[in-house]
Design brief:
Distance between the termini: 47 Å
Order of helices and strands: EEEEHEEEHHHHH
Oligomer: single chain
Helix content: 25-40%
Structural class: alpha+beta
Number of helices: 6
Shape: elongated
Largest sheet: 3 strands, antiparallel
């Protein structure tokens, strides 16, 4: 089945309604590369993975109205590794941080560090482990208007 991405610490979480049991279950697929802060940049993962919904294989064992065991796996979730996360961070830096999103007449302006930290939910602090990681990703961008 296909489910939307919902990031937690070390896993993807999803809910599923089982009609036969008239019950909703919540399941998780572990991936130690995932952090809950990725929820705010979900759209970048959707672009990198090229899908809004991830494919999940679910196995549910139940007896009567009681669930005995639930297991789930996903090749899409297994694809999320440090390389994919680096690509997502790089795309975030390139599109969000080096693009002015305010006054169209000031489109040549760059965001300041204060602008970045004041963005909704402090995205920068959630996807970068340190200031050095942010700066390293900024320095990797060579083809932007203000790369110098």
């Amino acid at each position: 089945m296909k489910v939307p991405l919902q990031f937690l610490v070390g896993c993807i979480c999803f809910s599923l309604f089982i009609e036969e049991l008239n019950m909703e279950i919540t399941s998780e697929i572990e991936n130690l590369n995932i952090r809950s802060g990725f929820e705010v940049i979900k759209s970048y993962f959707i672009k990198i993975l090229k899908k809004k919904l991830i494919c999940v294989e679910i196995e549910i064992h139940y007896k009567g109205n009681e669930i005995i065991n639930v297991s789930a796996s996903s090749e899409d979730i297994d694809k999320i590794n440090s390389s994919i996360i680096d690509n997502v961070r790089f795309e975030f830096v390139k599109r969000e941080m080096l693009t002015f999103k305010g006054n169209p007449e000031a489109s040549s302006a760059l965001n300041t560090f204060e602008d970045l930290l004041s963005k909704e939910k402090n995205v920068v602090g959630k996807i970068f482990k340190s200031d050095e990681d942010l700066i390293d990703d900024l320095l990797k961008i060579k083809n932007s208007k203000h790369s110098y």
